[in-house]
Amino acid sequence: MENAGYIALSRQTALWRQMDQIANNMANLNTAGFKGERELFTDYVAQVRTDRSLFKDKVAFTQDFGMVRDLSEGAFETTGNALDVAIKGDGYFEVETEGGQRLYTRGGHFKLNADGQLATSAGELVLNENEQPIFIAPNETEITFSRDGTISTENGPIGRLRLASFADERALKKVSGGLYDAGEQAARPVVAPHVVQGMLESSNVNPMLEMTRMIEVQRAYEHAQKMIETEHDRVRSAIDAYAKSFS
């Protein structure tokens, strides 16, 4: 394949990954606490328009470096559910999987499991400031969350949510369902936590913006395909002309 073909193919490959990212954002429009993501690209071997240029538009080799997560806060929605908790500002809830892995999430749609422990909708245990599961007694029905994360019932305080912050939030590795793995990063407590009971932080994905991006990516992909076809026709014409010169 000639250089122009490689360049167009690199662009198509990057656009394909970008479309996957947009689709993932759209699929998580209703995931509480979800943070939208975008691919990060750079261009090499740029060729500006000249009289001798084969293509009218800029031609460049595209390389995608990775993903950039949008950390802006999503809108807050009132649910009226006493076990729904939203974080205002900095922080992630620390949870523990069945296998003992520590993960972090902004999604505060909690429930009580069969053992009376506070858990995420997927079953991960929500931890308190002592890194232990939070247990609600069967006879305790009035559950409240204070601004600082303190959990109380009609019998008094029973613990405090563990809210973690990180030096580099974008380095958190996405797992699934709005969960993140901190990897080698050390979690540190939020200095001034602010949680709100009976509310959930919505996904910060803008559906109209994502639809616009999807259309732009589709058009760019079609343009790159046209570039490949044009280059193919050019090479074929050159070969035909060369063959005729010997006939």
Per-chain topology:
Blueprint: H1 3-27, E1 37-47, E2 59-69, E3 76-78, E4 85-87, E5 92-96, E6 102-105, E7 110-112, E8 118-120, E9 125-126, E10 144-145, E11 150-153, E12 156-160, E13 163-165, E14 173-174, E15 179-181, E16 188-189, E17 195-197, E18 199-201, H2 207-244
Antiparallel strand pairs: 1-2, 3-18, 4-17, 5-6, 5-9, 5-13, 6-15, 7-8, 10-11, 11-12, 13-16, 14-15
**Helical residue percent band:** 25-40%
Summed over residues and divided by their number, the pLDDT gives a mean of: 84
Shape: elongated
State the secondary-structure class.
alpha+beta
Radius of gyration: 26 Å
**Termini Cα gap:** 26 Å
In terms of per-residue confidence, which ranges show pLDDT below 50 for 5 or more consecutive residues? 51-55
Give a written overview of the molecule.
By secondary structure, the chain is α+β, with helices and mostly antiparallel strands. The chain folds into 2 domains: 3-70 and 205-244, no CATH class; 76-201, no CATH class. 26% of the residues lie in helices and 29% in strands. It has helices at residues 3-27, 207-244; strands at residues 37-47, 59-69, 76-78, 85-87, 92-96, 102-105, 110-112, 118-120, 125-126, 144-145, 150-153, 156-160, 163-165, 173-174, 179-181, 188-189, 195-197, 199-201. Strands 5, 6, 9, 13, 14, 15 and 16 form a 7-stranded antiparallel beta sheet that branches. Helix 1 runs antiparallel to helix 2. The relative contact order is 0.20.
